[in-house]
Amino acid sequence: MSAGIAGSSYDPGTLTSEEVVWSRVQLYLEEHGYLLRPRYRQGWIPSWRGQEPGAWARAEDGLTLPARVNVIDAIRIADNSLVYIKKVRADGDEQAIVAHLNTVELRQDARNRSVPILDTLPHPDEGSRFIVMPFLRYIDSPDFACVEEILYCGEQLLEGLVFLHENHIAHRDCAYKNIMMDASGLYPRGFHPILQDDLPDITARAPVLSRTSANIRYYFTDFGISSRFSAQDDNRFVVGREGLDKSVPELSNDVPYDPFKVDVYILGNVFKGQFLEKYKNFGFLEPLVLKMTARDPALRPSAETALQEWRALYRRTSVLNRFRRVEHVDATLGARLAVYASYPFLYIWLVLAFMRRRLPHPPAL
């Protein structure tokens, strides 16, 4: 189906206003090595034109862009890889922070979990710039399969937050929608950027591998409200109520607060919503998550302390428990029985896959 729209009476044969913005720079992007989908190319004629009503629903070029004007998917012509192109202000704080995080020195640090910038281009008609990034997916797309995968995800994210804070950067909006992963290694035949469970031509479901067998990296994205300080700054307080997570207790337009403790709270809330509240086998993370989401910022651990505690929990988790299948809190009895029935075979397969993965991880005690 087209992005969020169903029904045979709808015909996406006309570009939306957001799509027109991108179609105007399609040739410019292609000249610089980036190919937009057929829908946005010059002279596009809907492939379903002249066919029966509703034929657009089976057409790849019937898939419209989500309602956002500053981001679009594209193919990098040089290697046929899927990328995101984002329009940002050339002189904005976001551009400066992202550029700093992508310097050669900082990019060489394995803890740097800021989204990599593959290329930058000036906008041909405006005083803005295009930044090119890998195409990323939400951290639960596809779903986690076992406890090990979630422990590894959480470790990467806390490690990345420590890196940001060591470099005097507070993200301030590291909520679920701004934490993503490079899932290209999970899809040997690729996937469509809109219908992400399908092959690029949307003719069938895309085969997907286990995270445990792939080198998955998780990234912080969208530094639009982030703050960067100098090493000499004594006052590292900010004001403002912007951000996706509106539950942060201290957010204020008038009373200054510590943005680094806000980061710890927001990431703790991600762990709470995406791990503790979705799955049954993560009660052992609850004490740490409760500390990270304490209402009093003074009671929250630093990112470094939270990482140390997470790794301690990781080490104390036996190999058997690491490779237990995750169990959704709302799973039916039949689904739970199916998991248990397949567990011995799944366990052996996941352990072998993990042994093949050349990634560092805390050893079990």
What does the oligomeric state look like here? single chain
**Annotation field: number of helices:** 10
- Beta-strand residue percentage: 5-15%
Strand order, largest beta sheet? 1-2-3-5-4
Distance between the termini: 49 Å
Order of helices and strands: HHEEEHHEEEHEEEEEEHHHHH
The structural class is alpha+beta
What value does the Rg take, in angstroms? Answer: 22 Å
Give the low-pLDDT segments: 1-8
Q: Judging from the principal axes of the Cα atoms, what is the shape? A: globular
The count of β-strands is 12
**Helix coverage percent:** 25-40%
The mean pLDDT is 89
Task: Describe the sheet with the most strands.
Answer: 5 strands, antiparallel
Q: In terms of topology, how is this protein built?
A:
Blueprint: H1 17-23, H2 26-31, E1 34-35, E2 71-76, E3 81-89, H3 93-101, H4 104-107, E4 119-122, E5 128-134, E6 137-138, H5 147-166, E7 169-170, E8 179-182, E9 217-220, E10 227-228, E11 238-240, E12 252-257, H6 259-276, H7 286-292, H8 303-316, H9 319-322, H10 333-356
